[in-house]
Amino acid sequence: MRQGNKIIQVFEHELLQVGEQFQQKHLKAFSKLNALHNDMYFDLRYNGIKFKNFVGVIQVDGLTVEILPKIDAAETNEVLWQSVLIEMLKTTRKLKVQKVGNVNVSRQNIHLLDIYFEWFLNELELLIHNGLIKQYYKQTMNVKALKGKLEFAGHLRKNLIHKECFYTTHQIYDKDHLIHRILSKALYIIEDFTKGTYLYSRCKSVRLDFPEVKEIKVDKTTFSRVKKGRKTAPYATALEIARLIILNYAPNISAGDEKMLALLFDMNSLWEEYVLAKLKQEASSLENVEVYGQQSREFWQGITIRPDIVVKKDDEYFVIDTKWKNIQNFNPSTQDLRQMYVYNDYWKSVQAMLLYPSTESRAPEFKPFVGEKHYCAVGLLNIIEDGKLKGDLGKEIMDWYV
């Protein structure tokens, strides 16, 4: 665990207790956030919290807590595992940045929120530079000249005295539309969370170049109302970041005026998506090899089963289930083995593998299920090489199969 400059870095499954920086008000805010999400992020302990398998970053009342992944109980290298997390997020397209931070800022003081905020500001600056679009939208209000549709009931109610006005619904064509209102909402949140940092002045600068728009309440349904098309395509990335920031923003979650922003990712899902992305990348250079993720088949009465990854070479299938944990004694659970047996049976797979991260690779030894002609094995994959996340994981895994 590392603390400093109002940034605390911890590892998943680690205990964080109340102290000089992590205070009772932070603990209260964290516990309320956890309760809102059915206690899935961490377990409450006496005067502290114990993190689960979620990694990412939480900021509340000026304190940033960054939760990093690990595969070893004795892990202490925060810089390494922060870079591993960032690379996984980039590869799985949850983070699309080429460089991190600013030349005037110490690398150790950059955290995930800074990276997402900077990414969003980059996107907004690009949109402003290329020209912000105008859109039609309907507006109902009093106007001096009759245009659009006269709202008769509203007109009678509002204009008994003001005979010169008309209460109408009419179309407006300008930059004050839904997309810009969403982006403005995200910009205000970032501005609020970056006070006192190198990004605050940049936020103010972007704000000056951004059109004044009506403030709206944004939730999940707001994003579903955004109309997609050729003109709005350049906004896709900015809207995705805005969605992530706005929907994970929890104002006034604690007793005082503190505001919280939490970007958290299930490490099991992230590991699965990362392995899938690297295998697809490797398969693109091979003949007659295809890689699938999220492939489901009906199991019983509408219930489906889904292995994490299916590899097809020619007419043969191979199944992979990823597990983000340090396997003890190299023995998988009986439940996991039963699951792999079913996957083999339903996909007519030749070999199934349970894939775990490790500090040392160990190729799978495929052994048959008793009385069957299909096999299962445990694969240990070293994911660190030369002080960073290994880049050719897909090739190493594929070599075990094909």
From TrEMBL:
It comes from the Bacteria. InterPro entries: McrC, PDDEXK-like_dom_sf. Pfam families: McrBC. This is 5-methylcytosine-specific restriction enzyme subunit McrC. It comes from Salinimicrobium marinum.
